Amino acid sequence: MKKEKVGLEMQDVIGRTYHEFPEPTSKALNADAKVVCLCNQKGGVGKTTSVVSIAGALKNYGRRVLVIDLDPQSAASIALGVEAETLEKTALDLLIDDRYNDPENIGELIYQTTVDDIELIPANIHLTTSEAILTHNHKEIGEAQLQLANKIEPLKKDYDVILIDTQPSLGFLNINGLCAADSVIIPNAAEYFPLRGTTQLLDTIYNIRTQLNPNLKIGGIFITMLSARTTHSREVIERINDEWPDLLLYSMISRSIAFADSTVDGAPMEQLKKNHKGSKQYRMLVRELFERNVF
Ligand SMILES: Nc1ncnc2c1ncn2[C@@H]1O[C@H](COP(=O)(O)OP(=O)(O)O)[C@@H](O)[C@H]1O
Ligand SMILES: [Mg+2]
């Protein structure tokens, strides 16, 4: 990084020193949205919570955000206050219906959330049918996998960031998410050493890069649900740092019950408890991701 380092000197839980990341500068005019996919095939590592919290922090920095829920369990939709279960128009329609090749029609799929400037294309359980439908309708290699990428292209002028939440798998839907993304970021719960899982995920990313989306960047791995006082957490983080030193972000998210509460409230914690440590940590993560040109 060529930028001058002026922020406060900080130290993370494994003793790496860094400079506090600055607030993002004002937006570039007429820039296309950066598309960022959160991915980890393990469940319960903080993907959805991070999507929602990052959206909240981005809004705080004046960015317009579209969240695309690609998990048939609807967790991100619900956490943003949209009861997706009974909705007729969802991410499934975006993927399978040729009507949405015409950008004029996509507005039908975009829902306002509880927060201004955070909009949503929701998902529900019907999304599980997308693979069968798309692989039946698109026989050319890669065509079914590139549906999301193609469909969201015209939306990029309307947002600063498009965030994609994914399900715990490396299957068809997640490949659509990764093919549509400029960057992938990988949340990892501090208790869990993900050697095999992350190696598999990185292999999948490299394959997608060679075959379908040459521009896909790895934005980083970040730690969630950190209990700084336990030596086990620290050991796990040290091992991740040994394996992927260039990928492990400095910003980490502590364990806090407040995240579950904000899901129940249907809005990012940023909007409800701006001064909570967890809100601040997600703002710092977002700043670091700006520094890494993920946003
Ligand atoms: N930093 C955190 N501290 C405590 N609980 C958390 C934290 N982040 C997420 N959670 C909780 O952990 C559970 C799994 O998180 P979630 O974001 O749904 O993971 P994923 O999307 O990877 O399955 C949820 O109940 C969520 O409220
Ligand atoms: Mg989830």
What does this structure look like?
The structure is a single chain. With 295 residues, this protein is α/β, with parallel strands linked by helices. The chain has a single domain (9-291), classed as Rossmann fold. Helices cover 36% and strands 17% of the residues. The protein has eleven helices and ten strands. Strand 8 (183-189), helix 7 and strand 9 (217-226) form a beta-alpha-beta unit. It binds adenosine-5'-diphosphate and magnesium ion. Magnesium ion binds at residues 47-48, 71, 75.
Average the pLDDT over all residues and give the rounded result.
Answer: 95
Largest sheet: 8 strands, mixed
Name the bound molecules. adenosine-5'-diphosphate, magnesium ion
Total count of strands: 10
Shape estimate = globular
Report, as a whole number of angstroms, the end-to-end distance. Answer: 15 Å
The CATH architecture would be: 3-Layer(aba) Sandwich
- Kindly provide the radius of gyration, computed on alpha-carbon positions and rounded to a whole number of angstroms: 18 Å
| Total of domains | 1
